[in-house]
């Protein structure tokens, strides 16, 4: 009852923590709802299949369809026959999918990736898609197209396939996306079998079909039905989902850190302002454990109320985040926002947990207040640094320095995350050690204003020196706001300079042939550019065991025409891949390719890792023989040879253009992500700064009354409040910049090594100025408003 009474009577003191929890839980709720809504859906083309039989999954795989080892023709035929005889199954259909794209007026026709896939005619049974006109394809030069393409039955249609442009006769149209060829033609394009669809009789028991199919497959594969069919997703949809998850994941992590940081600083400030009250409770017999339970209970109540309100706000804000993600093109097509219970419960649990954790330190310190403290001024607790804070601050500072150093030496995949974690750690260290700097910095900044004889600078300096811990609680949100703004904007600016410069150095003097409107280069493009690097990627599996029945490891294989490595029957491995596979030069290795065929190879060489070469390289002809649908990556033509973009769907770039275009592919998304994170960090911290200043001004109402009684005017008191607020923001902004410089310097150093170019640290002064002004415009009016209100109440 005491806990609820305290929250009710002292609601203004808990308002800041309540708002901080509300904002944090709202942000986490929104991101979790979007994440839950973006889970893979069953593709329309599989809607009519009761179940899908899939090959065995490779080890160390991420669960994508490409990580399943395809059956060969000889392996699939008996399975197809057996599955077709399962009771309740009308037909078992091999699902084949390969590159196919119409060419009109010399340009590729594309529609969000839906019209760049070809299939066998049997795949229409899985949706099912119905013939709108014409008939099914039977000859090798016949095709059935989506009626939306507008191709009339009997007309000629140029279709780009892996070989290049070929002319087909349109013999029919269907009410679904894609291009449909005869089964024989589709089998030549994709000889491996990656999925068999089971078409059920009307009213058949799907569960019984799945059970029988699993028994038939045994350990040769698995069977999925219902929502499990969502596993088969087109690569472009998976890529969009991956980008979206990365973005909202970063938002959620930043929101969680900022919530913990802000709530903890606010609760420490609120508890410190109640020191006399806590001393009185100790004086009348309250035990330390009772004080701790009271503080933690109050935090739990505030956290629960803030979490409930934050969940409601988060659900209401979900359409806004969805529209932002749609604008960035990182949401799967047709995604619908659905609100499940688990995102709300998870976010609420986080809000309550963060509040309790944030109050733990404050409660632990408050419980040690001696009864005599009831007779002392509460500001006595605000002086100096305790041993525990010194130890914690220096330990966290050391960890932050180590992480900043690690940023320079970490891999490209971990460098950004390492810089973010280093900054988070250094922000915490700065918040813990701020009381050490408050006094000296306060003296330095107020010294120039004392020459005019004004008492204001003297009072401001005296307040900072007398109450360094309270000032530190006010500075903490500013450090977070400015620190994240400097870090994120600086990372974007530094990478904007580093990556294009480094990439341009790697391809200097070459002309690069890139896809333009197509997902890759066809063999026609490769033939038109016979000189230069033309890597042909495929997904393959290294199998082990004397009978090749042991688990397989999935890997990306590159086919090359480079004479140094283009040797029949041999593979060239990078050192890391060789170590993972347990191979060395001269050892045999068996690889299952995309057509399901096992191919014995010999390790011809193990070379230092080189991304430009690849980790597992074989002859280009070998990849083409076993993966007829594979498309070639960018083609690098040396300066002494002539490149051409005469084939539709290609473009030419010099080194500088290629490097810039390659960076700009993801630069817009990177810029948008950084902007969103900066807005979240600064906006959240601005709210915290305003609340902290209001709480501090409200707690100093006795000081204002004394100053007013001593002759201070209302104008002087308001100027004093504005000066204190501005000085606190200045100190926080300076620390926010300082703590981000080591991680950014480490990032620049790492990029210099990775790109073999001289990369210096770059800061975005616009973002820094916006962050500082934002916190300043939040802090000063909040301090002035509460001071004015307090003075008016005293006067009344």
Gyration radius, rounded: 33 Å
Shape: elongated
Q: Which structural class should the secondary elements be placed in?
A: alpha+beta
- Termini separation comes to 33 Å
**What helical percentage do the residues reach?**
40-55%
Largest sheet: 9 strands, mixed
How would you characterize this protein structure?
This protein is α+β, with helices and mostly antiparallel strands and 796 residues long. The protein folds into 5 domains: 1-40 and 235-382, no CATH class; 44-94 and 194-232, Alpha-Beta Plaits (2-Layer Sandwich); 97-191, no CATH class; 383-506 and 657-796, no CATH class; 511-656, no CATH class. It is 55% helix and 15% strand. It contains 20 helices and 23 strands. The strands form 4 sheets. Strands 3, 4, 5, 6, 7, 8, 9, 10 and 11 form a 9-stranded mixed beta sheet that branches. Strands 16-17-21-18-20-19 form a 6-stranded mixed barrel. A 4-stranded antiparallel beta sheet has the order 2-12-1-13. Helix 2 (11-37) packs across helix 8 (288-327). The longest helix has 45 residues, at 655-699. The protein starts with a helix and ends with a helix. Residues 378-382 have low confidence and may be disordered.
